[in-house]
Design a protein that fits this description.
This protein has 227 residues and is an alpha/beta fold. It has a single domain, classed as 5-stranded Propeller (L-arginine/glycine Amidinotransferase, Chain A). Helix content is 30%, strand content 22%. It contains nine helices and 15 strands. The strands form five sheets. It has a three-stranded mixed β-sheet, sandwiched between helices. It is globular, with a radius of gyration of 16 Å. The two termini are 12 Å apart.
Length: 227
């Protein structure tokens, strides 16, 4: 177990382009095959190669746990087939709303989900049904973009350093894992932009410092390591 450092498309913001969980890692098609295979091997899960509506911004557009996946309305049928070819048992839901960045507005693991407080009650219910977990509206650091402000695995949550105590308690209660704070890529507080992982391993942006890796490793319960 450990932390692997990576850049993608010339940037350390790897969480904008990729997502990972206990069942798969999803990487856009234009990404180099060597890096995609490295992610597959490091995270020890099957690899999905696809785009979303021809976009490479998978981390921003997609939210998924082991049970379900939320996709924006503009995803193509061919892309859905590519996802289903690997994640055969996944409950896939195309969200027919104006909102598209579900990776930015939903923070989920296999135990619960925190969602943007601006979502309508019926949208929250759909998210809960699709992901198969309780979904509760909440904020992080007083901001609604909970999916970009934290990363959640089945072992822990790493969140924006300015998270409020009541926000932390709610996340711990709903996601049923410890919550702590940190940054990525030399001080970036939007941790999900530069970090993906599961309960096995974590991949961080290439600018992430040693002290940041130490905190990430402790919070998400993986051993600090770099190749």
């Amino acid at each position: 177990m450990g932390i692997y450092l990576l850049s993608l498309f010339g940037t350390a913001s790897i969480g904008v382009y990729t997502i990972a969980n206990e069942k798969f890692v999803m990487v856009p098609k234009p990404a180099p095959e060597t890096k995609a295979k490295k992610l597959e091997k490091w995270l020890k899960v099957p690899l999905i190669r696809t785009n979303v509506g021809n976009s490479v911004l998978l981390g921003a557009l997609v939210c998924a746990n082991s049970y379900g996946m939320l996709l924006p309305h503009f995803i193509l049928d061919e892309e859905i087939r590519e996802i289903k070819a690997v994640a055969k048992d996944l409950n896939i839901q195309v969200m027919e709303t104006k909102r598209t960045a579900y990776g930015n507005i939903v923070l989920a693991n296999d135990k619960g989900a925190i969602v943007d407080p601006r979502l309508k009650p019926q949208e929250v219910k759909i998210i809960s049904d699709v992901l198969g977990v309780e979904a509760v509206q909440g904020e992080i650091a007083g901001l609604p973009y909970v999916g970009s402000l934290a990363i959640a695995t089945n072992k822990g949550v790493l969140a924006h350093p300015l998270i409020k105590e009541e926000e932390r308690k709610l996340i711990e209660e709903v996601l049923k894992v410890p919550v702590d704070v940190g940054t990525v890529n030399c001080g970036i507080p939007y941790v999900a932009t530069g970090l993906i992982g599961n309960s096995r391993n974590v991949v961080a942006g290439s600018l992430t410092t040693g002290p940041e890796m130490f905190i990430i490793g402790n919070v998400l319960n993986v051993v600090e390591e770099n190749e």
